[in-house]
Protein backbone atom coordinates (compact mmCIF):
# COMPACT_ATOMS: atom_id res chain seq x y z
CA UNK A 1 0.00 0.00 0.00
CA UNK A 2 0.63 2.92 1.18
CA UNK A 3 3.63 4.35 1.26
CA UNK A 4 4.26 2.99 -1.87
CA UNK A 5 7.74 -0.17 0.25
CA UNK A 6 9.15 -1.15 4.21
CA UNK A 7 10.11 -17.94 3.21
CA UNK A 8 8.74 -21.53 2.70
CA UNK A 9 5.23 -22.73 2.64
CA UNK A 10 4.72 -26.28 3.60
CA UNK A 11 3.05 -28.77 1.33
CA UNK A 12 0.95 -30.11 4.16
CA UNK A 13 1.48 -31.31 7.67
CA UNK A 14 3.88 -34.10 6.63
CA UNK A 15 6.38 -31.66 5.15
CA UNK A 16 5.98 -29.30 8.09
CA UNK A 17 6.78 -32.03 10.57
CA UNK A 18 9.89 -32.93 8.61
CA UNK A 19 11.23 -29.45 9.37
CA UNK A 20 10.54 -29.33 13.10
CA UNK A 21 10.24 -31.65 16.08
CA UNK A 22 6.93 -33.40 16.61
CA UNK A 23 6.12 -31.88 19.98
CA UNK A 24 3.14 -29.52 19.94
CA UNK A 25 0.80 -27.67 22.24
CA UNK A 26 -2.65 -26.83 20.94
CA UNK A 27 -4.06 -23.48 21.98
CA UNK A 28 -7.54 -22.14 21.32
CA UNK A 29 -7.66 -18.58 20.07
CA UNK A 30 -10.76 -16.46 20.34
CA UNK A 31 -12.27 -16.09 16.89
CA UNK A 32 -15.49 -16.62 15.03
CA UNK A 33 -14.04 -20.03 14.23
CA UNK A 34 -11.90 -22.19 16.45
CA UNK A 35 -8.26 -21.76 15.56
CA UNK A 36 -5.70 -24.35 16.61
CA UNK A 37 -2.11 -23.24 16.74
CA UNK A 38 0.76 -25.71 16.54
CA UNK A 39 3.59 -24.26 18.60
CA UNK A 40 6.89 -25.77 17.52
CA UNK A 41 10.33 -25.04 18.93
CA UNK A 42 13.84 -26.23 18.24
CA UNK A 43 17.28 -25.65 19.74
CA UNK A 44 18.63 -25.89 16.20
CA UNK A 45 16.35 -23.06 15.12
CA UNK A 46 18.02 -20.69 17.57
CA UNK A 47 21.44 -21.80 16.40
CA UNK A 48 20.54 -21.38 12.74
CA UNK A 49 19.23 -17.90 13.41
CA UNK A 50 22.80 -16.92 14.31
CA UNK A 51 24.31 -18.35 11.12
CA UNK A 52 24.11 -16.07 8.08
CA UNK A 53 24.70 -19.01 5.72
CA UNK A 54 21.79 -21.10 7.01
CA UNK A 55 18.09 -20.70 6.37
CA UNK A 56 16.43 -20.29 9.78
CA UNK A 57 13.72 -22.87 10.34
CA UNK A 58 10.23 -21.47 9.77
CA UNK A 59 7.50 -21.45 12.37
CA UNK A 60 4.49 -23.51 11.31
CA UNK A 61 1.06 -23.14 12.91
CA UNK A 62 -2.23 -24.91 12.21
CA UNK A 63 -5.53 -23.05 11.87
CA UNK A 64 -9.06 -23.28 10.55
CA UNK A 65 -11.64 -20.77 9.34
CA UNK A 66 -15.22 -21.05 8.10
CA UNK A 67 -15.88 -19.47 4.70
CA UNK A 68 -19.40 -19.59 3.26
CA UNK A 69 -20.29 -22.36 5.70
CA UNK A 70 -17.27 -24.48 4.78
CA UNK A 71 -14.54 -25.21 7.33
CA UNK A 72 -11.12 -24.65 5.80
CA UNK A 73 -8.09 -26.13 7.52
CA UNK A 74 -4.76 -24.58 6.69
CA UNK A 75 -1.23 -23.97 7.91
CA UNK A 76 0.62 -20.69 8.21
CA UNK A 77 4.39 -20.72 7.64
CA UNK A 78 6.29 -17.74 8.99
CA UNK A 79 9.97 -17.13 8.54
CA UNK A 80 12.82 -16.15 6.24
CA UNK A 81 14.19 -17.04 2.85
CA UNK A 82 17.91 -16.29 2.58
CA UNK A 83 18.90 -14.65 -0.69
CA UNK A 84 22.26 -15.83 -1.96
CA UNK A 85 24.57 -15.01 -4.84
CA UNK A 86 26.99 -17.13 -6.78
CA UNK A 87 30.59 -15.95 -6.49
CA UNK A 88 31.29 -13.42 -9.22
CA UNK A 89 27.66 -13.50 -10.38
CA UNK A 90 25.62 -10.83 -8.55
CA UNK A 91 21.86 -10.72 -9.03
CA UNK A 92 22.23 -7.30 -10.66
CA UNK A 93 25.73 -6.66 -12.09
CA UNK A 94 26.99 -3.22 -11.19
CA UNK A 95 24.23 -2.49 -8.68
CA UNK A 96 25.13 0.42 -6.36
CA UNK A 97 26.13 -0.59 -2.86
CA UNK A 98 26.82 -4.23 -3.79
CA UNK A 99 29.85 -4.10 -1.54
CA UNK A 100 30.91 -1.97 1.36
CA UNK A 101 29.33 -1.03 4.70
CA UNK A 102 25.64 -0.53 5.20
CA UNK A 103 24.65 3.08 4.63
CA UNK A 104 20.87 2.89 4.65
CA UNK A 105 18.06 0.69 5.86
CA UNK A 106 17.32 -1.00 9.18
CA UNK A 107 20.04 -2.74 11.15
CA UNK A 108 21.01 -5.95 9.31
CA UNK A 109 20.68 -8.39 12.23
CA UNK A 110 22.04 -9.24 15.65
CA UNK A 111 24.54 -11.72 14.22
CA UNK A 112 28.23 -10.74 14.33
CA UNK A 113 29.34 -13.31 11.76
CA UNK A 114 30.45 -12.28 8.29
CA UNK A 115 28.59 -13.78 5.34
CA UNK A 116 31.15 -16.11 3.74
CA UNK A 117 30.76 -18.18 0.58
CA UNK A 118 29.41 -21.65 1.33
CA UNK A 119 30.78 -24.91 -0.03
CA UNK A 120 28.58 -24.64 -3.11
CA UNK A 121 29.93 -21.18 -3.90
CA UNK A 122 26.85 -19.28 -2.72
CA UNK A 123 27.19 -16.25 -0.46
CA UNK A 124 24.28 -15.29 1.79
CA UNK A 125 23.25 -11.68 1.32
CA UNK A 126 19.86 -10.95 2.88
CA UNK A 127 16.92 -12.49 4.68
CA UNK A 128 13.49 -11.92 3.19
CA UNK A 129 10.61 -12.30 5.63
CA UNK A 130 7.39 -13.94 4.49
CA UNK A 131 4.12 -15.40 5.75
CA UNK A 132 2.55 -18.17 3.67
CA UNK A 133 -0.86 -19.80 3.97
CA UNK A 134 -1.37 -23.27 2.50
CA UNK A 135 -4.47 -25.42 2.46
CA UNK A 136 -4.23 -28.77 4.23
CA UNK A 137 -4.73 -32.15 2.55
CA UNK A 138 -3.62 -31.09 -0.93
CA UNK A 139 -2.02 -34.19 -2.43
CA UNK A 140 -1.07 -32.68 -5.80
CA UNK A 141 0.37 -29.13 -5.72
CA UNK A 142 -0.31 -28.80 -9.45
CA UNK A 143 -4.02 -28.56 -8.67
CA UNK A 144 -3.60 -25.70 -6.19
CA UNK A 145 -2.88 -22.09 -7.28
CA UNK A 146 -0.41 -19.97 -5.31
CA UNK A 147 -0.57 -16.17 -5.20
CA UNK A 148 2.46 -14.03 -4.26
CA UNK A 149 1.43 -10.69 -2.71
CA UNK A 150 3.30 -7.48 -1.90
CA UNK A 151 2.68 -3.78 -1.45
CA UNK A 152 4.72 -0.93 -2.85
CA UNK A 153 6.41 2.23 -1.66
CA UNK A 154 9.19 1.77 -2.55
CA UNK A 155 9.81 0.97 1.10
CA UNK A 156 6.51 -0.61 2.11
CA UNK A 157 6.00 -3.94 3.80
CA UNK A 158 3.06 -6.16 2.87
CA UNK A 159 1.14 -5.36 6.06
CA UNK A 160 -1.60 -3.46 4.21
CA UNK A 161 -2.64 -6.33 1.94
CA UNK A 162 -1.93 -8.87 4.67
CA UNK A 163 -4.03 -7.29 7.40
CA UNK A 164 -6.65 -5.62 5.23
CA UNK A 165 -7.42 -7.73 2.21
CA UNK A 166 -7.26 -11.46 1.41
CA UNK A 167 -5.50 -13.21 4.31
CA UNK A 168 -7.61 -15.40 6.63
CA UNK A 169 -7.33 -12.85 9.45
CA UNK A 170 -7.65 -9.06 9.21
CA UNK A 171 -7.80 -5.90 11.28
CA UNK A 172 -11.32 -4.84 12.20
CA UNK A 173 -12.39 -1.54 10.61
CA UNK A 174 -15.77 0.06 10.05
CA UNK A 175 -17.65 -0.96 6.91
CA UNK A 176 -16.39 2.25 5.25
CA UNK A 177 -12.81 1.47 6.23
CA UNK A 178 -12.45 3.89 9.13
CA UNK A 179 -10.44 3.13 12.25
CA UNK A 180 -12.45 2.21 15.36
CA UNK A 181 -11.31 3.58 18.72
CA UNK A 182 -8.20 1.82 20.10
CA UNK A 183 -7.43 -0.76 21.29
CA UNK A 184 -7.91 -2.48 17.96
CA UNK A 185 -9.15 -5.97 17.12
CA UNK A 186 -8.22 -8.88 14.88
CA UNK A 187 -11.07 -10.83 13.27
CA UNK A 188 -11.63 -13.66 10.82
CA UNK A 189 -11.72 -12.42 7.23
CA UNK A 190 -14.99 -13.40 5.61
CA UNK A 191 -13.50 -12.43 2.24
CA UNK A 192 -10.27 -14.42 2.42
CA UNK A 193 -9.03 -15.89 -0.86
CA UNK A 194 -7.64 -18.98 0.85
CA UNK A 195 -10.54 -21.15 -0.32
CA UNK A 196 -9.28 -20.60 -3.89
CA UNK A 197 -5.52 -20.08 -3.65
CA UNK A 198 -2.56 -20.44 -1.33
CA UNK A 199 -1.15 -17.05 -0.34
CA UNK A 200 2.42 -15.84 0.18
CA UNK A 201 3.00 -12.33 1.58
CA UNK A 202 6.47 -10.96 0.88
CA UNK A 203 8.34 -8.12 2.59
CA UNK A 204 11.11 -6.80 0.29
CA UNK A 205 14.55 -6.17 1.76
CA UNK A 206 14.60 -3.39 4.41
CA UNK A 207 10.83 -3.64 5.03
CA UNK A 208 8.96 -5.69 7.63
CA UNK A 209 11.48 -8.03 9.28
CA UNK A 210 13.55 -8.37 6.09
CA UNK A 211 17.18 -7.33 6.50
CA UNK A 212 20.52 -7.57 4.77
CA UNK A 213 23.11 -9.68 6.54
CA UNK A 214 26.06 -8.13 8.43
CA UNK A 215 28.36 -5.95 6.34
CA UNK A 216 25.97 -6.06 3.41
CA UNK A 217 24.76 -2.69 2.17
CA UNK A 218 20.94 -2.49 1.90
CA UNK A 219 21.37 -0.03 -0.99
CA UNK A 220 22.20 -2.96 -3.28
CA UNK A 221 18.49 -3.87 -3.10
CA UNK A 222 17.13 -0.32 -3.28
CA UNK A 223 16.40 0.13 -6.96
CA UNK A 224 14.03 -0.87 -9.73
CA UNK A 225 16.20 -3.62 -11.26
CA UNK A 226 17.70 -4.59 -7.92
CA UNK A 227 14.28 -5.03 -6.34
CA UNK A 228 12.99 -7.08 -9.28
CA UNK A 229 15.97 -9.41 -9.00
CA UNK A 230 15.57 -9.86 -5.24
CA UNK A 231 11.82 -10.48 -5.24
CA UNK A 232 12.16 -12.60 -8.38
CA UNK A 233 14.80 -14.74 -6.68
CA UNK A 234 12.55 -15.16 -3.66
CA UNK A 235 9.73 -16.41 -5.89
CA UNK A 236 12.11 -18.82 -7.63
CA UNK A 237 13.39 -20.18 -4.32
CA UNK A 238 9.94 -20.52 -2.83
CA UNK A 239 8.64 -22.23 -5.96
CA UNK A 240 11.52 -24.72 -5.99
CA UNK A 241 11.63 -25.52 -2.29
CA UNK A 242 7.90 -26.08 -2.08
CA UNK A 243 7.47 -28.04 -5.33
CA UNK A 244 5.25 -25.36 -6.89
CA UNK A 245 6.73 -25.21 -10.40
CA UNK A 246 3.66 -27.00 -11.77
CA UNK A 247 1.16 -24.98 -9.72
CA UNK A 248 -0.81 -22.12 -11.31
CA UNK A 249 1.01 -18.97 -10.21
CA UNK A 250 -0.37 -15.46 -9.71
CA UNK A 251 1.57 -12.32 -8.73
CA UNK A 252 -0.32 -9.48 -7.04
CA UNK A 253 1.17 -6.05 -6.43
CA UNK A 254 -0.33 -2.85 -5.09
CA UNK A 255 0.76 0.70 -5.96
CA UNK A 256 4.56 0.64 -6.55
CA UNK A 257 4.02 -3.09 -6.20
CA UNK A 258 2.34 -2.91 -9.62
CA UNK A 259 5.61 -1.55 -11.04
CA UNK A 260 7.30 -4.56 -9.44
CA UNK A 261 4.63 -7.03 -10.58
CA UNK A 262 4.70 -5.83 -14.19
CA UNK A 263 8.50 -5.97 -14.21
CA UNK A 264 8.47 -9.45 -12.67
CA UNK A 265 6.25 -10.76 -15.45
CA UNK A 266 9.10 -10.24 -17.90
CA UNK A 267 11.98 -10.86 -15.47
CA UNK A 268 10.76 -14.25 -14.22
CA UNK A 269 9.96 -15.41 -17.73
CA UNK A 270 13.29 -14.24 -19.17
CA UNK A 271 15.64 -15.06 -16.29
CA UNK A 272 14.18 -18.34 -15.02
CA UNK A 273 11.68 -19.50 -17.62
CA UNK A 274 9.01 -19.14 -14.94
CA UNK A 275 5.75 -18.30 -16.71
CA UNK A 276 2.88 -16.86 -14.71
CA UNK A 277 -0.82 -17.49 -15.16
CA UNK A 278 -1.82 -14.03 -14.01
CA UNK A 279 -0.74 -10.60 -12.81
CA UNK A 280 -3.03 -8.53 -10.58
CA UNK A 281 -2.33 -4.79 -10.54
CA UNK A 282 -4.07 -3.19 -7.56
CA UNK A 283 -4.11 0.62 -7.84
CA UNK A 284 -1.79 0.66 -10.82
CA UNK A 285 1.28 2.90 -11.13
CA UNK A 286 3.17 1.44 -14.09
CA UNK A 287 4.41 4.74 -15.53
CA UNK A 288 5.69 7.36 -13.10
CA UNK A 289 5.29 10.00 -15.79
CA UNK A 290 1.57 9.82 -15.02
CA UNK A 291 2.19 11.27 -11.54
CA UNK A 292 4.93 13.84 -12.15
CA UNK A 293 3.15 17.20 -11.83
CA UNK A 294 5.27 19.69 -13.76
CA UNK A 295 4.18 22.50 -16.11
CA UNK A 296 5.72 20.69 -19.09
CA UNK A 297 4.13 17.30 -18.38
CA UNK A 298 0.43 17.20 -19.24
CA UNK A 299 -0.13 13.52 -18.40
CA UNK A 300 -0.95 13.83 -14.68
CA UNK A 301 -3.32 16.77 -15.13
CA UNK A 302 -5.31 14.73 -17.64
CA UNK A 303 -5.07 11.47 -15.71
CA UNK A 304 -6.16 12.95 -12.38
CA UNK A 305 -9.10 15.02 -13.64
CA UNK A 306 -11.75 12.25 -13.59
CA UNK A 307 -10.63 11.41 -10.03
CA UNK A 308 -11.11 15.04 -9.05
CA UNK A 309 -14.62 14.87 -10.52
CA UNK A 310 -15.67 11.71 -8.68
CA UNK A 311 -14.23 13.14 -5.46
CA UNK A 312 -16.14 16.41 -5.86
CA UNK A 313 -19.30 14.40 -6.56
CA UNK A 314 -18.75 12.32 -3.39
CA UNK A 315 -18.45 15.49 -1.28
CA UNK A 316 -21.48 17.09 -2.99
CA UNK A 317 -19.57 19.98 -4.53
CA UNK A 318 -21.09 19.76 -8.02
CA UNK A 319 -24.15 21.39 -9.57
CA UNK A 320 -27.51 19.68 -8.82
CA UNK A 321 -27.80 18.12 -12.30
CA UNK A 322 -24.40 16.47 -11.88
CA UNK A 323 -25.05 15.43 -8.30
CA UNK A 324 -28.15 13.59 -9.55
CA UNK A 325 -25.93 11.30 -11.63
CA UNK A 326 -24.11 8.19 -10.42
CA UNK A 327 -20.38 8.11 -9.76
CA UNK A 328 -19.99 5.92 -12.85
CA UNK A 329 -21.72 8.55 -14.99
CA UNK A 330 -19.59 11.34 -13.53
CA UNK A 331 -16.45 9.33 -14.26
CA UNK A 332 -17.55 8.84 -17.88
CA UNK A 333 -18.28 12.55 -18.37
CA UNK A 334 -14.89 13.52 -16.96
CA UNK A 335 -13.06 10.88 -19.03
CA UNK A 336 -14.60 12.27 -22.22
CA UNK A 337 -13.65 15.85 -21.41
CA UNK A 338 -10.17 14.96 -20.13
CA UNK A 339 -9.29 12.86 -23.16
CA UNK A 340 -10.52 15.39 -25.71
CA UNK A 341 -11.05 19.11 -25.02
CA UNK A 342 -8.80 19.25 -21.96
CA UNK A 343 -6.00 17.28 -23.62
CA UNK A 344 -6.05 19.56 -26.66
CA UNK A 345 -6.17 22.72 -24.54
CA UNK A 346 -3.11 21.70 -22.54
CA UNK A 347 -1.28 20.68 -25.70
CA UNK A 348 -1.78 24.16 -27.17
CA UNK A 349 -0.21 25.76 -24.11
CA UNK A 350 0.31 29.51 -24.49
CA UNK A 351 -1.15 29.45 -28.00
CA UNK A 352 -4.60 28.54 -26.67
CA UNK A 353 -7.01 31.43 -27.52
CA UNK A 354 -8.36 33.36 -24.52
CA UNK A 355 -11.97 32.48 -25.29
CA UNK A 356 -11.13 28.77 -25.48
CA UNK A 357 -9.18 28.97 -22.23
CA UNK A 358 -12.19 30.56 -20.52
CA UNK A 359 -14.51 27.85 -21.86
CA UNK A 360 -12.23 25.03 -20.72
CA UNK A 361 -11.80 26.63 -17.27
CA UNK A 362 -15.59 26.83 -16.91
CA UNK A 363 -15.98 23.12 -17.71
CA UNK A 364 -13.15 22.22 -15.32
CA UNK A 365 -14.96 24.19 -12.64
CA UNK A 366 -18.25 22.44 -13.40
CA UNK A 367 -16.62 18.98 -13.15
CA UNK A 368 -14.47 19.55 -10.06
CA UNK A 369 -16.23 22.16 -7.94
CA UNK A 370 -13.25 24.54 -7.94
CA UNK A 371 -13.72 28.13 -9.20
CA UNK A 372 -12.97 28.75 -12.87
CA UNK A 373 -10.75 31.66 -11.76
CA UNK A 374 -8.63 29.16 -9.83
CA UNK A 375 -7.95 27.23 -13.05
CA UNK A 376 -7.28 30.38 -15.05
CA UNK A 377 -4.73 31.57 -12.47
CA UNK A 378 -2.89 28.25 -12.82
CA UNK A 379 -3.00 27.97 -16.62
CA UNK A 380 -5.66 25.24 -16.38
CA UNK A 381 -3.33 23.09 -14.27
CA UNK A 382 -4.23 22.13 -10.69
CA UNK A 383 -1.91 19.56 -9.10
CA UNK A 384 -3.10 16.86 -6.75
CA UNK A 385 -1.59 18.63 -3.74
CA UNK A 386 -3.52 21.81 -4.53
CA UNK A 387 -6.75 19.90 -5.01
CA UNK A 388 -6.46 18.15 -1.64
CA UNK A 389 -6.47 21.49 0.15
CA UNK A 390 -8.70 23.50 -2.22
CA UNK A 391 -11.90 21.43 -2.53
CA UNK A 392 -12.93 21.72 1.14
CA UNK A 393 -11.10 24.97 1.89
CA UNK A 394 -14.28 26.67 3.15
CA UNK A 395 -14.72 23.87 5.70
CA UNK A 396 -11.05 24.00 6.78
CA UNK A 397 -10.73 20.34 5.85
CA UNK A 398 -8.15 18.31 3.96
CA UNK A 399 -8.84 15.43 1.56
CA UNK A 400 -7.23 12.04 1.84
CA UNK A 401 -4.74 11.22 -0.89
CA UNK A 402 -5.04 7.45 -0.74
CA UNK A 403 -8.80 7.64 -0.31
CA UNK A 404 -10.49 10.96 -1.04
CA UNK A 405 -13.64 9.93 0.83
CA UNK A 406 -11.68 10.64 4.02
CA UNK A 407 -11.26 14.16 5.38
CA UNK A 408 -9.54 15.77 8.33
CA UNK A 409 -8.93 19.19 9.89
CA UNK A 410 -6.16 21.38 8.48
CA UNK A 411 -2.91 22.19 10.19
CA UNK A 412 -2.84 25.48 8.28
CA UNK A 413 -6.39 26.50 7.30
CA UNK A 414 -6.64 28.65 4.19
CA UNK A 415 -3.26 27.66 2.75
CA UNK A 416 -2.34 25.46 -0.20
CA UNK A 417 -0.23 23.02 1.80
CA UNK A 418 -2.10 19.98 0.47
CA UNK A 419 -1.13 16.49 1.61
CA UNK A 420 2.22 17.85 2.81
CA UNK A 421 0.28 18.43 6.02
CA UNK A 422 -1.03 14.88 6.56
CA UNK A 423 -3.20 12.27 4.88
CA UNK A 424 -6.47 11.48 6.70
CA UNK A 425 -6.91 8.25 4.73
CA UNK A 426 -3.44 7.00 5.62
CA UNK A 427 -3.84 7.75 9.31
CA UNK A 428 -7.22 5.98 9.33
CA UNK A 429 -5.71 2.55 8.70
CA UNK A 430 -2.06 2.64 9.79
CA UNK A 431 -2.81 2.21 13.51
CA UNK A 432 -5.30 -0.67 13.29
CA UNK A 433 -3.37 -2.65 10.67
CA UNK A 434 -0.01 -2.22 12.41
CA UNK A 435 -1.39 -3.17 15.82
CA UNK A 436 -3.25 -6.16 14.41
CA UNK A 437 -0.14 -7.47 12.66
CA UNK A 438 2.17 -7.11 15.66
CA UNK A 439 -0.30 -8.97 17.86
CA UNK A 440 -1.06 -11.62 15.24
CA UNK A 441 2.51 -12.46 14.26
CA UNK A 442 3.56 -13.09 17.88
CA UNK A 443 0.42 -14.40 19.57
CA UNK A 444 -1.17 -16.52 16.84
CA UNK A 445 1.66 -17.27 14.40
CA UNK A 446 4.21 -17.70 17.23
CA UNK A 447 7.02 -15.88 15.45
CA UNK A 448 9.48 -14.44 17.96
CA UNK A 449 11.90 -11.61 17.27
CA UNK A 450 12.90 -8.35 18.93
CA UNK A 451 13.33 -6.61 15.58
CA UNK A 452 10.81 -3.83 14.91
CA UNK A 453 8.44 -4.61 12.06
CA UNK A 454 9.08 -1.79 9.60
CA UNK A 455 5.70 -1.14 8.00
CA UNK A 456 7.48 1.47 5.87
CA UNK A 457 11.13 2.40 5.62
CA UNK A 458 12.96 5.22 3.90
CA UNK A 459 14.82 3.48 1.07
CA UNK A 460 15.89 6.67 -0.67
CA UNK A 461 17.72 7.25 -2.84
CA UNK A 462 15.90 4.58 -4.85
CA UNK A 463 17.75 3.72 -8.04
CA UNK A 464 15.19 4.18 -10.81
CA UNK A 465 17.81 3.68 -13.50
CA UNK A 466 19.08 5.93 -16.27
CA UNK A 467 17.22 9.25 -16.15
CA UNK A 468 17.79 9.65 -19.90
CA UNK A 469 15.30 6.81 -20.40
CA UNK A 470 12.54 8.91 -18.83
CA UNK A 471 10.38 8.24 -15.75
CA UNK A 472 10.24 4.68 -14.37
CA UNK A 473 7.92 2.64 -16.56
CA UNK A 474 7.41 -1.14 -16.54
CA UNK A 475 4.41 -1.09 -18.88
CA UNK A 476 6.66 -2.14 -21.75
CA UNK A 477 8.08 -5.06 -19.76
CA UNK A 478 4.51 -6.19 -19.21
CA UNK A 479 3.73 -5.80 -22.91
CA UNK A 480 6.69 -7.98 -23.83
CA UNK A 481 5.76 -10.67 -21.32
CA UNK A 482 2.14 -10.70 -22.52
CA UNK A 483 3.28 -10.90 -26.14
CA UNK A 484 5.56 -13.88 -25.49
CA UNK A 485 3.16 -15.66 -23.13
CA UNK A 486 -0.30 -15.72 -24.73
CA UNK A 487 -1.75 -17.33 -21.58
CA UNK A 488 -0.77 -14.48 -19.23
CA UNK A 489 -3.93 -12.83 -17.88
CA UNK A 490 -3.76 -9.28 -16.50
CA UNK A 491 -6.27 -7.74 -14.08
CA UNK A 492 -6.15 -4.02 -13.26
CA UNK A 493 -8.22 -2.79 -10.30
CA UNK A 494 -9.25 0.87 -10.20
CA UNK A 495 -10.97 2.90 -7.50
CA UNK A 496 -13.02 6.05 -8.04
CA UNK A 497 -11.63 7.79 -4.94
CA UNK A 498 -7.96 6.90 -5.34
CA UNK A 499 -5.99 10.13 -5.76
CA UNK A 500 -2.60 8.44 -5.40
CA UNK A 501 -2.92 6.26 -8.51
CA UNK A 502 -6.11 7.50 -10.25
CA UNK A 503 -8.22 5.20 -12.41
CA UNK A 504 -8.01 7.26 -15.61
CA UNK A 505 -4.22 7.46 -15.37
CA UNK A 506 -4.11 3.66 -15.20
CA UNK A 507 -6.45 3.40 -18.18
CA UNK A 508 -4.40 5.74 -20.35
CA UNK A 509 -1.11 3.98 -19.55
CA UNK A 510 -2.57 0.60 -20.47
CA UNK A 511 -4.18 2.03 -23.62
CA UNK A 512 -0.73 3.24 -24.66
CA UNK A 513 0.83 -0.22 -24.45
CA UNK A 514 -0.22 -0.84 -28.09
CA UNK A 515 -1.11 -4.48 -27.57
CA UNK A 516 -2.16 -6.75 -30.39
CA UNK A 517 -5.96 -7.33 -30.21
CA UNK A 518 -5.58 -11.02 -29.35
CA UNK A 519 -3.19 -10.14 -26.51
CA UNK A 520 -5.30 -7.23 -25.27
CA UNK A 521 -8.16 -9.71 -24.82
CA UNK A 522 -6.17 -11.12 -21.88
CA UNK A 523 -6.53 -7.84 -19.97
CA UNK A 524 -9.44 -6.76 -17.79
CA UNK A 525 -10.37 -3.81 -15.52
CA UNK A 526 -12.64 -3.70 -12.50
CA UNK A 527 -13.85 -0.64 -10.58
CA UNK A 528 -14.62 0.05 -6.92
CA UNK A 529 -16.29 2.81 -4.94
CA UNK A 530 -13.32 3.03 -2.62
CA UNK A 531 -9.77 4.36 -2.57
CA UNK A 532 -6.18 3.18 -3.05
CA UNK A 533 -6.66 0.39 -0.50
CA UNK A 534 -9.98 -0.67 -1.98
CA UNK A 535 -10.25 -3.65 0.38
CA UNK A 536 -10.72 -1.57 3.55
CA UNK A 537 -14.22 -0.75 2.24
CA UNK A 538 -16.43 -3.74 3.09
CA UNK A 539 -18.55 -3.82 -0.08
CA UNK A 540 -15.46 -3.38 -2.24
CA UNK A 541 -13.65 -6.16 -0.39
CA UNK A 542 -16.56 -8.52 -1.08
CA UNK A 543 -16.59 -7.51 -4.76
CA UNK A 544 -12.79 -7.83 -4.91
CA UNK A 545 -13.04 -11.49 -3.95
CA UNK A 546 -15.83 -12.21 -6.43
CA UNK A 547 -13.83 -10.52 -9.18
CA UNK A 548 -10.77 -12.57 -8.20
CA UNK A 549 -12.70 -15.82 -8.48
CA UNK A 550 -13.70 -14.90 -12.04
CA UNK A 551 -10.15 -13.85 -12.93
CA UNK A 552 -8.61 -17.01 -11.44
CA UNK A 553 -11.02 -19.23 -13.36
CA UNK A 554 -10.10 -17.54 -16.64
CA UNK A 555 -6.38 -17.67 -15.85
CA UNK A 556 -6.43 -21.39 -15.04
CA UNK A 557 -8.93 -22.67 -17.63
CA UNK A 558 -7.53 -21.96 -21.09
CA UNK A 559 -7.35 -23.85 -24.35
CA UNK A 560 -3.98 -24.24 -26.11
CA UNK A 561 -2.97 -21.51 -28.53
CA UNK A 562 -1.98 -23.28 -31.75
CA UNK A 563 0.90 -21.13 -32.96
CA UNK A 564 2.31 -23.92 -35.15
CA UNK A 565 -0.96 -24.80 -36.87
CA UNK A 566 -0.99 -24.97 -40.69
Break the fold down into its secondary structure elements and pairings.
Blueprint: H1 13-19, E1 26-29, E2 35-38, H2 43-49, E3 59-67, E4 70-86, E5 122-135, E6 146-150, H3 159-164, E7 169-171, E8 186-188, E9 198-203, E10 211-212, H4 224-241, E11 249-255, H5 256-272, E12 278-284, H6 299-314, H7 320-323, H8 327-348, H9 354-368, H10 372-377, H11 384-390, E13 397-399, E14 407-409, H12 424-444, H13 475-484, E15 489-495, H14 503-511, H15 517-520, E16 523-528, H16 538-556
Parallel strand pairs: 6-9, 6-11, 11-12, 12-15, 15-16
Antiparallel strand pairs: 1-2, 3-4, 4-5, 5-9, 5-10, 7-8, 13-14
Summary keywords:
single chain; 566 residues; alpha/beta; ten-stranded mixed sheet; two-stranded antiparallel sheet; 16 helices; 16 strands; 33% helix; globular
Description:
It is a single chain. This protein has 16 helices and 16 strands. The chain is of the alpha/beta class and 566 residues long. The protein folds into 2 domains: 13-253 and 431-475, no CATH class; 290-425, no CATH class. The strands form 4 sheets. Strands 3, 4, 5, 6, 9, 10, 11, 12, 15 and 16 form a 10-stranded mixed beta sheet that branches. Strands 1-2 form a two-stranded antiparallel sheet. A hairpin with a 5-residue loop joins strand 1 (26-29) and strand 2 (35-38). It is globular, with a radius of gyration of 24 Å. The relative contact order is 0.14. Mean pLDDT is 87; it is low at 1-50.
Amino acid sequence: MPKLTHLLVILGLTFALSLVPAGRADVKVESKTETKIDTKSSDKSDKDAESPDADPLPVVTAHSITVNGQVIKYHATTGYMVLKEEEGKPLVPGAPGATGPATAGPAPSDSKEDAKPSKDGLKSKARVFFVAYTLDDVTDPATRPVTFCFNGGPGSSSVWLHMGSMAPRRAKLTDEGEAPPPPYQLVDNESTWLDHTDLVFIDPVSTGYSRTLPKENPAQYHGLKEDLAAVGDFIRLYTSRNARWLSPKIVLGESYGTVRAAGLSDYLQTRYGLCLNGIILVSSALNYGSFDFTPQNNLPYIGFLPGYATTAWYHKKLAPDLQAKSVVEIADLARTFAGNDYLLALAKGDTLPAAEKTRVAAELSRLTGLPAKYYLQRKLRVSDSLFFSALLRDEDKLLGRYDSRFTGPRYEPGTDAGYNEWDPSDEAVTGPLTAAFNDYIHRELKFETDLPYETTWDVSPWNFGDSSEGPPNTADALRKAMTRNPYLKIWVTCSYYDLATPFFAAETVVAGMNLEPSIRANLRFSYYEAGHMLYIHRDSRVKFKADFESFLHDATHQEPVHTAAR
